[in-house]
Design goal:
Blueprint (H helix, E strand, L loop, with lengths): L18 H97 L2 H7 L3 H103 L9 H14 L5 H12 L23 H4 L5 H11 L10 E4 L2 E5 L9 H5 L5 H9 L9 H14 L7 H13 L6 H5 L2 H20 L4
Antiparallel strand pairs: 1-2
Helix pairs in contact: 1-3, 4-5, 4-10, 5-13, 9-10, 10-11, 11-13
Length: 442
C-alpha cells in the first residue's frame, strides 16, 4: 500500500516567502523522505524474501521434473520387462502343453504294454528280457517327463509371480510419478503467485523511489529558495516569462543584446541563479564545501576586491558563497559571484566599471552582484562590450568566449579551460530560448 504524501510538488515560491517558512517546508519534506526510505527498505527486503522463495520453488520444480523423467523411464523399462515376462509365460505354457501331450503318449504306450499277454510278448520280442528292458525304459522316460513337466510348471509359476511383482512395481511407480506431477503443478502455481507478488512489490518499490526522487527534487528547490532568501536581494525568478522579461529589460538597457543570449549564458553559468557557489558558504543551507574559504578558491589578487564588495553590502566575507571547482580534493579555480558569476576585480574594474554602470542604469546603490536585476544587467553589459549588441552570431560567439576567457579568440589556454564546450553550450541554450520566444511561448 503506497504512502499518502502531501502534495509538495505543487508548491511554488509563494509557499515560502521567508527563510523560516521555507525551513518548515523543508523539514516536512525531510520527514516524508525518511518515511519513504523506511518503506523502500522494507519493500526491498520483501522483494528479496519473495525472490528467495521463488528460487526454492524453482529448484523444487526442477528436482520434481528430473524425478518424473526418471520415473517415466523406469515405468517404460518395467513395461518392456513385463512384456518379456508375458512372452516367457506364453512360451512356458506351450512347453507345458507339449510336455503333457508327450507324457500322455508315453502313458498310453506303458498302458498298452501292460495289457499284452505273455504269448503276445514272446511273439513280439526277441526275448522276455527285451520286453522288460523296453518296459523299464518307458517307465524311466515317464518319470523324467513328469519331472520335466513339474520343472516347467515351477518356471511358469515363477514367471507369473515375477510378472505380478513387476506389475505392482510399475503401478507403485506410476502412482509416485502421479503424485510428483501434482506436486510439480502445485509448486508451479505457488511460484507464479510468488512471482506475481514480487512484481507487485517491484512496482511498489519503483513508485516509492519515484516519490522519493520527486520529494528530494522539491527539497532541493526549497533549499535553493532558502539560499536565495539568505543572500540580500537575491531573488532570481523561476517563471520562464519573468526570466524573459528580466533578460529583455537587461538586453535593451545594455544596447540591444538578445534576451535569449543572456538567458543561455546565465543558465550555463549558474543555472539561472540556482547555483551561485558551493564554497566559502559555512552556515548557508546549501553548501558542499564550507571548509574552503574564499582565500582558498580565488587568487590572492581577488581578495581585497571581494572583501570590499562584502563590506559595502553588509555581507560576511567568510560566509558569502563563491564558485569553486574541486576535483580529486584539489581546488582548481573559483571565486565568481552571484547569478552572472562575476569575478570581484571584474565587478570593480575602474575601466569597465560594471558596478558603476549598473548603478547608473538602475538608480540603486550599491549595485549587488547577487541581486537578480543587477546580475542580469551586468552580464548584458559585458556581452555588449564584446559586440553582442550587433546580434550577429559570430560576434555573439566571440562575446560568449570572452565571458569565460577574457578574449573572443579561442586560444590554447581558453580551449584548455573548456572554452569550446562552454560557448557551444551557451549558444545551444540561447537557441532554445530563442525558439521559445519565436513561438510566442514567452
Amino acid at each position: 500500500m503506497a504512502l499518502v504524501l502531501p502534495n509538495f510538488t505543487a508548491l511554488s515560491q509563494e509557499d515560502c516567502q521567508t527563510i523560516k517558512e521555507c525551513e518548515v517546508l523543508w523539514g516536512k519534506l525531510q520527514e516524508e523522505i525518511k518515511k519513504l526510505e523506511g518503506q523502500i527498505a522494507k519493500t526491498e527486503q520483501e522483494k528479496k524474501t519473495l525472490q528467495n522463495q521463488i528460487n526454492v520453488l524453482r529448484s523444487r520444480i526442477q528436482q520434481l521434473e528430473l524425478q518424473i523423467q526418471q520415473g517415466n523411464v523406469m515405468i517404460k523399462d518395467l513395461g518392456y520387462q513385463i512384456k518379456d515376462t508375458e512372452a516367457s509365460i506364453e512360451q512356458t505354457s506351450l512347453k507345458i502343453k507339449d510336455s503333457r501331450e508327450k507324457l500322455a503318449g508315453i502313458l498310453r504306450v506303458i498302458y498298452e504294454e501292460d495289457q499284452k499277454g505273455l504269448i503276445e510278448i514272446l511273439l513280439s520280442e526277441a526275448s522276455l528280457s527285451g520286453f522288460f528292458d523296453n518296459l523299464m525304459a518307458l517307465e524311466v522316460l515317464n518319470l523324467k517327463s513328469q519331472e520335466l513337466l513339474e520343472n516347467i510348471k515351477d518356471l511358469k509359476l515363477s514367471l507369473e509371480k515375477q510378472k505380478e511383482k513387476l506389475d505392482e512395481e510399475k503401478e507403485s511407480l506410476a502412482q509416485t510419478v502421479k503424485v510428483q506431477t501434482i506436486q510439480k503443478q502445485e509448486s508451479e502455481t505457488a511460484r507464479k503467485e510468488q512471482e506475481k507478488l514480487r512484481d507487485m512489490k517491484e512496482t511498489q518499490y519503483q513508485q516509492y523511489l519515484k516519490e522519493k526522487k520527486e520529494l528530494e527534487k522539491r527539497a532541493n528547490e526549497i533549499m535553493s529558495r532558502i539560499a536565495q532568501l539568505t543572500l540580500p536581494g537575491l531573488a532570481v525568478p523561476r517563471d520562464p516569462k519573468e526570466l524573459y522579461e528580466l533578460a529583455k529589460w537587461a538586453g535593451s538597457a545594455a544596447g540591444g543584446v538578445r534576451p535569449a543570449l543572456i538567458l543561455g549564458l546565465l543558465e550555463v553559468e549558474s543555472a539561472l541563479g540556482v547555483n551561485v557557489g558551493q564554497c566559502n558558504c559555512a552556515g548557508q543551507p546549501v553548501c558542499r564545501h564550507p571548509e574552503l574559504s574564499y582565500k582558498q578558491v580565488m587568487r590572492s589578487n581577488q581578495w581585497a576586491a571581494f572583501e570590499a564588495i562584502c563590506q559595502e553590502l553588509g555581507l560576511n566575507p567568510n560566509t558569502t558563497p563563491v564558485s569553486c571547482y574541486v576535483s580529486g580534493g584539489a581546488v582548481q579555480m573559483g571565486g565568481a559571484m552571484g547569478p552572472a558569476q562575476f569575478m570581484p576585480t571584474t565587478w570593480l574594474n575602474p575601466k569597465s566599471d560594471y558596478k558603476g554602470r549598473v548603478e547608473n542604469i538602475t538608480g540603486v546603490k550599491p549595485a549587488n552582484p547577487w541581486r537578480a536585476r543587477d546580475a542580469f544587467l551586468a552580464a548584458a553589459l559585458y556581452l555588449a562590450d564584446w559586440n553582442a549588441g550587433t546580434q550577429n552570431r559570430q560576434s555573439e560567439i566571440g562575446a560568449v568566449t570572452a565571458y569565460l576567457c577574457g578574449t573572443s579568440s579561442m586560444t590554447a589556454a581558453c580551449s584548455r579551460a573548456g572554452g569550446e564546450w562552454y560557448r557551444n553550450k551557451v549558444m545551444e541554450k540561447a537557441d532554445f530560448w530563442q525558439a521559445q520566444i519565436n513561438s510566442g511561448a514567452l
